[in-house]
Write a structure and sequence with these properties.
549 residues, 23% strand, alpha+beta, 22 strands, seven-stranded antiparallel β-sheet
Length: 549
């Protein structure tokens, strides 16, 4: 074992919080009772709370005490477990991303959690997680792991570990001298490249250091070399952040807010006006005027827009992205600080999002799909607000292995495919109109205006949809509200599916969907021309001589 390290002692407190929140509902139910023996239930609740607090503190201390990790020449080893001992070994050449995250409570405490991602890890769970580290240590460790992984991928080596005998208590007497020039090596053609750590005069008495200390000393001594080798460095300015926030359309916030208002409006009105009878008011009121409908709608939408701006600034504030050789590093967040480091080769798909406002102004948001332990499978934003005309140049700088060209005109959906996009929405509108007319009679006829609105929206989805095939890149585009374009390299396609309904078959139309690692949902386009999809199928199945659709 090489100098085992511990988590921050704050892990005891966070472990206490994780444990106690499970028991809070039980204590609450046990202590709240209006019966004859209320005092007894309250006493049991208090006693239970004391026992649970003591148990939570003890368990939090044990989980911190039994957790340790250390670095070897080719791996990081994590040991944990109170009752069942677990030893997790993660080799550097298996690491494809190292993420540092700071939820609000972590940020207030100046600590962070570090997550290590590897291919084939469990969905929603990091392969290795260091729950609570001092922020500075977490960032340094993130950079170390990133650098060691890069060295090994290039065929380099990190100085060999001591033998078991050398790890014993007499290792200091029997450990062979290691030449300082060989403490860290890499097969790199250029002295001072990221793949090589040239050892400076700051590294002395290497034979008296443990392997972890040698690695850390060499890493620190050459940190200035790594800092100078940034191929790309972009920090979002305040002006760019505000423009991005002003043009963001977060409809999910609007839906949540409106549902929340609907759910709690009754209780809120009764709290403000205790004698108010909502049902009696509806019975007495004969109709709805235009002002009664439009004014609350405008107020709600304005509030949602301001809320979305604030949340966007909080999420993407202090946005910073850098690229060093094949490693990309992304940091952002004002309250919850997030940091991701991943290899360019692990990018499964490049995604360009254009909401209607940004599309009109010629701007977009650029994302990448990478394999991550995030249960939500969050797509990482590599540029929140970029001109479309600059998109190809930025991708070339960030991900030079992908030759991406922005193509406005794709092989689209013919007019016969409009029914695919309009049928279900029109059925839903018909049901809404029927219920509205039944409830509000003539006033409900206003809902008939939804028909042309939905038809325009459905046709917009049809016009936006399409595909494009060029060399080893497949481009798919669709729209719900935001127009989304997916750029997928052939080697990253896990599954490619085509399907057609009897109605589509008669019209010569077919739908296509593809899936990559790291994405919960497929990327799909509906009701394309059969010949266009067949070309993609033949391309993916390595030649038109293979079987057709």
């Amino acid at each position: 074992m090489t100098n085992p390290r511990k988590l921050s002692r704050l892990d005891i407190f966070f472990g206490f919080l994780r444990t106690i929140r499970v028991f809070i509902p039980i204590v609450f139910v046990a202590s709240v009772n209006s019966g004859e023996f209320k005092w007894l239930y309250t006493l049991w609740g208090l006693l239970g709370a004391v026992v649970i607090v003591a148990f939570s503190l003890l368990y939090g201390w044990l989980t911190w005490k039994k957790f340790s990790f250390y670095l070897e020449s080719d791996r990081i080893v994590i040991m944990r477990g109170v009752f069942n001992k677990e030893e997790k070994v993660i080799y550097y050449n298996r690491i494809h991303s190292v993420n540092v995250q700071q939820p609000l409570l972590h940020r207030v405490s100046s600590v962070a959690k570090l997550q290590i991602e590897t291919p084939g890890g469990k969905s929603g769970k990091a392969e290795g997680e260091l729950r609570v580290l001092p922020l500075k240590q977490a960032i340094e460790l993130q950079q170390q792991l990133k650098h060691y992984a890069a060295i090994i991928r290039e065929g380099g080596i990190i100085s060999p570990l001591p033998t078991e005998k050398e790890r014993s208590g007499h290792a200091s007497m029997e450990q062979p001298n290691l030449d300082a020039d060989h403490s860290l090596q890499a097969n790199s053609e250029q002295e001072g490249a990221v793949g090589r750590l040239p050892v400076t005069g700051q590294i002395k008495n290497v034979h008296q250091q443990s392997v972890a200390e040698q690695m850390e000393t060499a890493y620190s001594a050459n940190a200035h070399i790594m800092q100078e080798q940034l191929d790309y460095n972009m920090k979002l300015s305040v002006g760019q952040l505000l423009r991005a926030a002003l043009t963001s359309l977060n409809l999910n916030y609007a839906i949540i807010f409106i549902v929340g208002i609907f759910s709690f409006a009754d209780d809120f009105i009764r709290f403000v006006v205790p004698g108010f009878n909502y049902n009696q008011y509806l019975d007495d009121y004969n109709g709805l005027s235009f002002k009664v409908i439009i004014v609350p709608v405008i107020v709600v939408m304005l509030f949602v827009w301001l809320l979305s701006i604030a949340l966007y600034v909080i999420k993407f504030g202090d946005y910073h992205i850098t690229r060093s050789k094949e490693q990309l590093s992304i940091k952002y967040g004002l309250l919850e600080k997030k940091s991701y480091v991943f290899n360019e080769g692990k990018v499964q798909a490049i995604i360009m999002d254009e909401n209607p406002i940004r599309q009109l102004l010629g701007y977009a948001e650029l994302k990448v799909q990478v394999i991550t332990s995030d249960a939500n499978k969050e797509q990482l934003v590599i540029h929140p607000f970029v001109r479309k005309k600059d998109m190809s140049a930025i991708i070339e700088q960030l991900i030079p292995s992908r030759n991406i060209k922005i193509q406005e005109k794709l092989s689209g959906v013919p007019i016969q495919g409009l029914i695919t996009y309009a049928l279900l929405p029109m059925m839903i509108v018909t049901i809404i109109c029927g219920i509205s007319i039944w409830l509000w009679q003539y006033t409900g006829l206003w809902m008939l205006l939804l028909y042309p609105v939905v038809m325009v929206w459905a046709n917009s989805c049809r016009v936006s949809a399409g595909l494009w095939l060029k060399d080893n890149e497949l481009v798919l585009r669709n729209r719900f509200i935001t127009r989304t374009t997916y750029f997928i390299a052939r080697k990253h396609i896990v599954t490619l599916k085509v399907k057609e309904s009897p109605r589509q078959r008669k019209l010569g139309l077919i739908s296509i969907s593809t899936k990559v690692l790291g994405s919960v949902f497929s990327y799909s386009v509906r009701s394309l021309r059969r010949e266009d999809v067949e070309a993609v199928w033949n391309w993916y199945s390595r030649g038109s001589s293979n079987r057709g659709l």
